[in-house]
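Predicting holo structure, glutathione bound.
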Amino acid sequence: MFKLLGRKTSGNVQKVIWYFEERGLEYTREDYGRQFGNTADRAYLDLNPNGKVPTLVDGDVVVWESNTILRYLCNRTDDATLYPADPAARSQVERWMDWLLASLNPPYMALFRETKKPEGERDASALASLGTEMAALLEILDGALQGRQWLAGDAVTLAEISLGPIVQRCLGFPIELPQLVAVRAWHQRFAARPAFRTATS
Ligand SMILES: N[C@@H](CCC(=O)N[C@@H](CS)C(=O)NCC(=O)O)C(=O)O
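Done. Tokens:
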């Protein structure tokens, strides 16, 4: 059985839980990270030298990096629905997974840290410029969603599963965002899925 190590409050752990729940796969999860104070333990570092969550254990196989875990699970379970086999279709999925890491994640992390501070200690000008950067990125996503229900193809794919929990948080930051009609409708569509709700509750 698959064993997922990582606290449920992590967006990157939530992606993997969403995947398991969406597929109805059997898995167990153990709490690691932040408040559990166990990711610097030797035993954990031997599995994941980054001391970050999530880590997936599948028998003798250990996988870290949440997007890599998602791809591993698709390959391991012959899942060509959430991760299409056709190279062109697959590239449509993967570009959003890479975009998350390369483009969205840096301002997302910065906003996450800034907004964790007590309100009086936040740097207003940093928040404003991060807000502008985030707005521009979410406009790109909004453009890609024009006239379509899902980001890559006709159904939910790893594009949604990798981006979903993070975009939900981006929409919740106390920053000024444009209307983002398509992004918000897309968010409502995937947020209504029981598997997503289980992952993020
Ligand atoms: N790129 C990595 C990022 C991993 C990461 O930064 N995880 C965060 C939680 S989202 C973490 O481990 N934070 C420290 C902790 O929980 O102890 C991935 O996608 O797996």
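The chain has two domains: 2-76, 87-200.
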